[in-house]
Design brief:
The protein contains one helix and no strands. The chain has about 60 residues and is mainly alpha-helical. The protein has one domain (about 10-55). The chain is globular, with a radius of gyration of 13 Å. The chain starts with 9 loop residues before the first helix and ends in a 33-residue tail after the last helix. This is Heme ABC transporter ATP-binding protein CcmA. Keywords: ATP-binding, Nucleotide-binding. GO terms for molecular function: ATP binding. It comes from Acinetobacter baumannii.
């Protein structure tokens, strides 16, 4: 999902987060790109940060 939380209000963000957590509990996975920090989810989370000092784009 590309920037899935962009332009969502707090209620919609919570709904999407709950659905992602439910999907993960059922064995699914999701790949997200975001510029926003993610709050801790109730499921395993792996983070890859790209940026000038992280070698992004190289």
């Amino acid at each position: 999902l590309d920037e899935p939380f962009t332009a969502l209000d707090a209620t919609a963000m919570e709904t999407l987060t709950r659905r992602l957590e439910q999907h993960a509990r059922q064995g699914g996975c999701a790949i997200l790109t975001t510029h926003q920090p993610l709050r801790p989810l109730g499921c395993p989370l792996r983070t890859l940060r790209l940026g000038g000092d992280a070698g992004g784009g190289q």
